[in-house]
């Protein structure tokens, strides 16, 4: 019986090993190392916003084809078959039938009528069509600029969230290091307490501090998971994928602050300029309603009539087929539209003026963003240098306080304060680095160089 139980245990262990091996292989296959460049390029290929912007560009080509079609011949075929159960009687003078002075009721038409034909319409002059053709190229350019703007927005969101993840990981690393150091101190105090060289209250306080650090660690782990999920969302990556961010990605790199960027070259401003061009074409399209339009039309038809269904019938059945054609020149001259066209022209003009105000406001906003980014960069560099020295000093204070405490020259309160100060200094340094990186992104954006992050 014991042998059977042992075999069952061995089988269970073997099965568990195989399952764990399979799971570990799947997990390792889903782990992906992400540099900032990798994350951005992944987002540009997989994020829904970037894909939709590309589809808008593709769709603009079809819109251009639709406008161009209005200048091409319009050809259609038609056919019909009609049955008249009761023919209309028409009152005709009897003179036509050799009965002067009388009126005869005679049916006109046939019980069955069938027709088929082809018609063609070709615009010769229509100012609205010509204006639409001119606007077609601008429409495509607008969607291309809009695609670039969307990609820049994706890059900005990815970069911001990427550095947020890095900061959370750095803070977690600080807490982990603090947890390890505090555990060592607690173990030393426990050894001293066991030997009667330390008070129980000191050991209890270190144990409580260790629990608090562990709670803080769990909170950071949760915050990190949420931030990583947000990053995966912004790059369009499956949430279950594990990511690794290399250490070298978070470095302070010098930025040129002397060159003032040209706002007119920013994608946001270029998009407004293209939109202004489109609104001008829209206004011209409304003005085109004042112009006459000229087109030519023609048709060729085949008509069958008789007492029976004309299809497949012959003259012997009383059914006769004849053909006829029509060619026409159509001229439309607008004379009075109740001032509706004038009202639409003025509405279009108001839209153009509103857009000009948006362009002025956008320029001010872009200039403000650049100046704020410069200020934040300068302040962040000062803070980083200060916090870097503060971290060194806090570590020295902690080392000295630990040594003094072990030698009975400092109370436990000083040691706890030194540990907290050290953690706070490291977190402040990490936060200063984050502020710098976020400001760096805004500065790169203000220069219109976000695409350089993909290189």
From TrEMBL:
- Fetch the Pfam families from UniProt: OEP (PF02321)
Q: Where in the cell is it found?
A: Cell outer membrane
The keyword Aminoacyl-tRNA synthetase is annotated on this UniProt entry: no
Query: Key word Iron-sulfur present in the record?
Result: no
Q: Which UniProt keywords apply?
A: Cell outer membrane, Membrane, Signal, Transmembrane, Transmembrane beta strand, Transport
Recorded hits in InterPro entries, A to Z, give: OMP_efflux, TolC-like
* Signal peptide coordinates: 1-29
* Family label: Belongs to the outer membrane factor (OMF) (TC 1.B.17) family.
Per its record, how is this protein called by name? Answer: TolC family protein
């Amino acid at each position: 019986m014991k042998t059977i139980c042992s075999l069952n245990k061995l089988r269970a262990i073997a099965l568990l090993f195989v399952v764990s091996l399979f799971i570990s292989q799947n997990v390792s296959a889903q782990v992906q190392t992400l540099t900032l460049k990798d994350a951005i390029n992944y987002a540009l290929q997989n994020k829904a916003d970037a894909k939709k912007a590309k589809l808008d560009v593709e769709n603009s080509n079809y819109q251009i084809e639709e406008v161009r079609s209005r200048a091409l011949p319009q050809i259609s075929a038609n056919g019909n078959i009609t049955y008249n159960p009761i023919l209309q009687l028409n009152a005709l003078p009897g003179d036509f039938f050799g009965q002067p002075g009388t009126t005869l009721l005679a049916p006109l038409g046939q019980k069955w009528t069938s027709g088929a034909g082809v018609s063609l319409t070709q615009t010769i002059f229509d100012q609205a069509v010509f204006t639409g053709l001119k606007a077609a190229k601008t429409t495509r350019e607008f969607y291309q600029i809009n695609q670039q703007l969307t990609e820049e927005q994706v890059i900005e969101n990815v970069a911001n969230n990427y550095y947020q993840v890095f900061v959370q990981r750095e803070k977690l690393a600080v807490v982990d290091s603090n947890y390890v150091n505090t555990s060592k101190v607690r173990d030393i105090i426990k050894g001293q307490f066991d030997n009667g060289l330390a008070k129980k209250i000191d050991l209890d306080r270190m144990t409580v501090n260790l629990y608090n650090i562990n709670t803080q660690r769990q909170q950071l782990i949760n915050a990190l998971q949420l931030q990583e999920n947000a990053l995966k969302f912004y790059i369009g990556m499956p949430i279950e994928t594990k990511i690794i961010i290399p250490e070298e990605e978070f470095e302070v790199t010098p930025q040129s602050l002397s060159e003032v960027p040209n706002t007119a070259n920013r994608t946001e401003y270029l998009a407004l300029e293209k939109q202004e061009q489109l609104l001008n074409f829209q206004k011209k399209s409304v003005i085109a309603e004042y112009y006459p339009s000229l087109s030519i039309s023609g048709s060729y038809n085949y008509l069958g009539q008789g007492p029976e269904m004309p299809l497949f019938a012959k003259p012997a059945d009383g059914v006769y087929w004849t053909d006829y054609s029509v060619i026409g020149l159509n001229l439309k001259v607008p004379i009075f539209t109740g001032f509706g066209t004038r009202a639409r022209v003025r509405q279009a003009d108001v839209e153009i003026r509103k857009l000009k105000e948006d362009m002025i406001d956008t320029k001010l906003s872009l200039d403000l963003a650049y100046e704020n980014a410069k200020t934040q960069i300068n302040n962040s560099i000062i803070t980083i240098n200060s916090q870097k020295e503060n971290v060194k000093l806090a570590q020295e204070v902690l080392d000295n306080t630990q040594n003094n405490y072990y030698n009975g020259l400092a109370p436990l309160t000083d040691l706890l304060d030194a540990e907290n100060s050290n953690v706070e200094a490291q977190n402040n340094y990490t936060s200063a680095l984050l502020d710098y990186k976020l400001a760096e992104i805004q500065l790169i954006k203000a220069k219109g160089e976000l695409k350089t992050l993909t290189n």
